[in-house]
Amino acid sequence: MYTPATFREERLDVLHGLIDAHPLGALVRQSADGLCADHLPFEIAAPTADAPFGILRAHVARANPLWRAAGADCMVIFQGPHAYITPAWYAEKQRSGKEVPTFNYAVVHAHGPLRAIDDAAWLLGLVERLTARHEAEQAAPWRVSDAPAGYIEKLLKAIVGIEIPLTRLTGKWKLGQNRTQKDQATMARELTAGTQPGAAQALGALIAANVTPAS
Q: How far apart are alpha carbons 124 and 144 in whole angstroms?
């Protein structure tokens, strides 16, 4: 990914924060038929000795050939907030008209080798954690134990865990850092108050929290 220094994000807690907030990742790998992508909800775990940037964990259907590619290098893309930026928000537009539109966004690319984990206890723990995390905002959170034990046991046999110890983590926060502080503040205000989808409002908040002097 082309990442100019102005847009580079390297803080591990910030990168993990985006993954946690936007857990549906696109796992890209080379298959016999060419590049292949699977879209999976992941959890991100803390770094270890062999995974200096953390560990991604998820599960797939046993029928999915992905888990049989164990050992293959892969990349998982996590898309954060994003939005179209109109040149009307730039001060130079009013002076000379010499401005054009762009798109701002935050994204993380996570790299590492694929591992397959076919272990019922490991899978149950993962499913319970993912469920607790995504059910947390429900008025009456559903728990894995709400379903019959035999039913869960049967379903666990139909899935396989995957784990990716991360060897590289690249973040790109394209938030208008190359613009003046005034332009950045205007973008943040217009995105937050505007009529674009929710992702635009989230981007506005992210820009507001990261306004920096233009380099």
A: 9
The third-level CATH classification (topology) of the domain covering 5-80+106-178 is Pnp Oxidase; Chain A (2.30.110)
Q: Sort 4 into a burial class: Cβ within 10 Å, 0-12 / 13-18 / 19+.
A: exposed
Bridge partners (DSSP) listed for residue 111: 75, 168
In terms of Cα–Cα distance, which of 90, 123, 121 is closest to 104?
Answer: 90
Q: What's the chain's length in residues?
A: 215
CA 214, CA 211: separation in Å to the nearest integer?
A: 9
Q: What is the pTM of this model?
A: 0.94
Q: Which amino acid is at 152?
A: I
Say if residue 122's pLDDT is above 90: yes
Instruction: Calculate mean pLDDT across residues 36-65.
Output: 97
- 165 closest CA partner among 112, 119, 123, 109: 112
40 and 78 in contact (C-beta within 8 Å)?
Answer: no
Q: Give 163-202 pLDDT, tens digit per residue.
A: 999 999 999 999 999 999 999 999 999 999 887 767 899 9
In the chain, domain spans? 5-80+106-178
Q: Are 98 and 92 in contact (CB under 8 A)?
A: yes
CA distances for 213 relative to 84, 180, 210, angstroms: 22, 6, 10
Cα atoms found within 13 Å of the Cα of residue 163, Cβ hemisphere only: 17
User: Residue holding tokens 């409002």?
Assistant: 201
